[in-house]
């Protein structure tokens, strides 16, 4: 049998430090700590039905969404891991109204800022469908002490790293530091994330469209026309396309990253900024998808160029295979 070298996430991160000649290893250490917290959360996700971890807690977050028990648990795990690691000065989380400055001795010179959606797709927890975690890392802009709001409100182009964890039929961690995208599958036997998807590239074109089509009537004209285009019969362009939508951004985008496709959460007249949050959903995915060769747009302009003004601000998003995103932008332009 041919010997296969197993590369764990921790080995890979250390190996990649040499891509950054002046690195002092803090980003590596932070990424490794996120990997540890992800394994802890994974453990709870895997036994949620047995451990009384299904269902809502009875509280709402700032966006008026019901918090699930696992939302709260995952949030606590990531915040405590990020606060204790000594490399993070402030955290912005979907589950906390304000940003959380990290105030302790080991973090007083911390350089990094983390924006996180601790549990994405939490409406899917109780029905045993895939859920995830999304994170984004910036360098601080404030000079010292605990981090502040201004550290969190940076453009997506300033991200130094971003990633997601998918708790699916297997658990994977996928991340980028701006030099391509790599994916690691958790081997439950050894409890380590191992490199399984090196240098991930998104197909330039695809035949999957992912959107909550129940909202069709509310979509902008250009998006409606694109959906009709997807449904037309044209074997030369692989149409009709397949419609695939789980309702977990992580799961929908992970599939489309591997297979080729486009994911859309557009604005409607009632929700002019769409639903998904810029700092901890759209920007990290925009960075990952662009690094894999895809494209992330509001429908009119690049997601990562938006200047944030609010921790929980939303943006419409059209993200995925470059040729598909280009096509939708064209439909949107033409409908105006
Ligand atoms: P979260 O569970 O973190 O609040 O995110 C849910 C998001 C996202 O994962 C998904 O793509 C979208 O909400 C689904 O929204 P609809 O149910 O409106 O389609
Ligand atoms: Mn989410
Ligand atoms: Mn969430």
Report what the structure shows.
The chain is α+β, with helices and mostly antiparallel strands and 336 residues long. The protein folds into 2 domains: 9-197, Fructose-1,6-Bisphosphatase, subunit A, domain 1 (Fructose-1,6-Bisphosphatase, Chain A, domain 1, 2-Layer Sandwich); 208-335, 3-Layer(aba) Sandwich (D-Maltodextrin-Binding Protein, domain 2), CATH 3.40.190. The protein is built from 8 helices and 15 strands. An 8-stranded mixed β-sheet has the order 4-3-5-6-7-8-9-10, sandwiched between helices. It has a 5-stranded mixed β-sheet with strand order 12-11-13-15-14, sandwiched between helices. The protein starts with 8 loop residues before the first helix and ends with a helix. 2,5-anhydro-1,6-di-O-phosphono-D-glucitol (AHG) binds next to strand 5. The site of one manganese (II) ion (MN) has 4 residues, from strand 5.
**What oligomeric state best describes the polypeptide chains here?**
single chain
Number of domains: 2
The CATH architecture of the largest domain can be named as: 2-Layer Sandwich
Number of helices: 8
Total strands: the figure is 15
Looking across the biggest beta sheet, what order are the strands in? 4-3-5-6-7-8-9-10
Task: State the CATH class of the largest domain.
Answer: Alpha Beta
Structural class: alpha+beta
Order of helices and strands: HHEEHEEEEHEEEEEHEHEHEEH
- How is the CATH topology of the largest domain named? Fructose-1,6-Bisphosphatase, Chain A, domain 1
Give a short account of the largest sheet: 8 strands, mixed
Q: Which outline best applies? A: globular
Low-confidence stretches: none
Bound molecules: 2,5-anhydro-1,6-di-O-phosphono-D-glucitol, manganese (II) ion
Calculate the mean pLDDT score and round it.
95
Q: What is the CATH superfamily classification of the largest domain?
A: Fructose-1,6-Bisphosphatase, subunit A, domain 1
The helix fraction, in percent, is: 25-40%
Give me the Rg, rounded. 20 Å
Strand residue content: 15-25%
Between the first and last Cα atoms, what is the distance in angstroms? 61 Å
């Amino acid at each position: 049998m041919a010997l296969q070298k197993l590369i764990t996430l921790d080995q890979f991160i250390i190996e990649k430090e040499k891509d950054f000649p002046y690195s002092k290893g803090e980003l590596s250490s932070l990424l490794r700590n996120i990997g540890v917290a992800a394994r802890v959360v994974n453990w709870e996700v895997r036994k949620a039905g047995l451990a009384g971890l299904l269902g809502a807690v009875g509280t709402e977050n700032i966006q008026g969404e019901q918090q699930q028990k696992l939302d709260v648990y995952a949030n606590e795990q990531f915040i405590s891991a990020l606060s204790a690691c000594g490399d993070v000065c402030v955290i912005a989380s979907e589950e906390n109204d304000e940003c959380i400055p990290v105030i302790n001795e080991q973090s007083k010179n911390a350089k990094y800022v983390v924006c996180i959606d601790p549990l994405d797709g939490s409406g899917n927890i109780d029905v045993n469908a895939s859920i995830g975690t999304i994170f984004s890392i910036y360098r601080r802009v404030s000079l010292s002490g605990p981090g502040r709001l201004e550290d969190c409100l940076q453009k997506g182009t300033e991200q130094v790293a971003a990633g997601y964890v998918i708790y699916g039929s297997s658990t994977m961690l996928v991340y980028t530091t701006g030099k391509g995208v790599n994916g690691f599958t958790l081997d439950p036997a050894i409890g380590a994330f191992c490199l399984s998807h090196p240098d991930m590239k998104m197909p330039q074109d695809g035949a999957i469209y992912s959107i909550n089509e129940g909202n069709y009537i509310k979509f902008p004209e250009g998006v409606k026309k694109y959906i009709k285009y997807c449904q037309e019969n044209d074997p030369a362009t692989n149409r009709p396309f397949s419609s695939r939508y789980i309702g977990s951004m992580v799961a929908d985008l992970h599939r489309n990253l591997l297979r080729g496709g486009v994911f859309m959460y557009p604005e409607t007249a009632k929700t002019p900024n769409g639903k998904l949050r810029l700092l901890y959903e759209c920007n990290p995915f925009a960075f990952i998808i662009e690094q894999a060769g895809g494209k992330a747009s509001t429908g009119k302009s690049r997601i990562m160029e938006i200047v944030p003004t609010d921790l929980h601000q939303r943006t419409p998003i059209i993200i995925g295979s470059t040729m598909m995103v280009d096509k939708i932008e064209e439909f949107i332009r033409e409908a105006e």
